[in-house]
Write a structure and sequence with these properties.
By secondary structure, the protein is mostly helical. Helices cover 48% and strands 10% of the residues. It contains 11 helices and 11 strands. The strands form 5 sheets. Strands 9-10-11 form a 3-stranded antiparallel sheet. It has a two-stranded antiparallel ribbon with strand order 1-6. Helix 4 packs antiparallel against helix 5 and helix 8 packs across helix 11. The protein is globular and about 55 Å long. The two termini are 19 Å apart.
Length: 279
């Protein structure tokens, strides 16, 4: 029992972050993110970059994610807002040097303020998990399900989901990260954020796929249903390889486990870079 609990205590110690509502779901408003950045001492020039980093919408390489639009309310009669915003962002690339990250972020946010719609500073929106948080969720789930370190590693290496324990670990991961519930199924609003956006046709395809999966899966097999919905209906379209973040914990069986993470977020490939070092 002591060794088993060490898994949970170790992964909880890996990272501390704000969780809202339930499980490991994180939600923030732009107003709260702004206050957070001010408390960090962010300069006015770099405030937009800080805020969009907090909401995980800013990437130093590709810039502002399109799912940043969730913080805005467009005019329903304005059919050109997305096009105008995109053209504004493209123009910014030719006028601001790539290394001027704060100015790029500020200009990108200004494009949304000027072109997309009315900004909503008060409503909390879903924030996708960082890789280290995803690692934490996986290992917490393994501990909660009573898996040993070896069992968790075998599950992660089970790319075809052939083992029931793999499917149950995956279901726990989806639930704990806020992407799925047994009652409501896939949370498409949150997958929209996690996947970096998708078009209406994809949403319709997922709806049709989910109906097929539910009709062909035993209703009492909750683990298989969750795994199939995510991997078959979401994962076939949006591949997103996570950057491994190595860490070492003591597994239930006493082994020292150096791990990265599922290289997936929403039902994508489960390749891994795990090493099990026996003492």
């Amino acid at each position: 029992m002591i060794l088993h609990l060490r898994i949970l205590f170790a992964v909880i110690a890996l990272v501390s972050f704000c969780s809202c509502n339930q499980h490991k779901i994180v939600q923030k408003s732009l107003g709260k993110a702004n206050d957070e950045c001010v408390s960090y001492g962010s300069s006015e020039q770099c405030l937009a970059r800080c805020v969009t980093l907090v909401t995980r919408d800013w990437n130093e390489t590709v810039g502002l994610s399109s799912v940043y639009d969730r913080f805005y309310q467009p005019d329903p009669e304005d059919l050109c807002n997305t096009n105008r915003t995109q053209r504004c962002l493209e123009a910014l690339q030719s006028t601001v040097a790539p290394e001027d990250k704060c100015l790029r972020a500020a200009g990108s946010v200004q494009c949304y303020l000027d072109q997309y719609g009315q900004v909503d500073m008060a409503t909390s929106r879903f924030v996708k998990s960082a890789p280290v948080q995803q690692q934490q969720i996986i290992w917490e789930c393994g501990a909660m399900l009573g898996y040993s370190g070896d069992q968790i590693l075998r599950s992660i290496d089970d790319k075809d989901y052939s083992m029931q324990e793999t499917r149950c670990l995956y279901r726990c991961y989806l639930i704990r990260s806020g992407m799925y519930t047994d009652e409501g199924g896939l949370n498409m609003e949150r997958f929209y954020v996690a996947c970096g956006g998708y078009e209406d046709e994809f949403y319709r395809n997922v709806t049709e796929c989910a109906a097929r999966v539910r009709s062909s899966t035993r209703c009492d097999d909750r683990c298989t249903l969750a795994q199939r919905l995510a991997s078959e209906c979401i994962g076939t379209r949006y591949d997103q390889t996570l950057t491994p973040g190595p860490a070492t914990i003591d597994a239930r069986d006493g082994s020292s486990v150096t791990y990265a993470v599922f290289q997936n977020y929403a039902g994508r490939d489960m390749t891994n870079t795990f090493v099990l070092n026996q003492r």
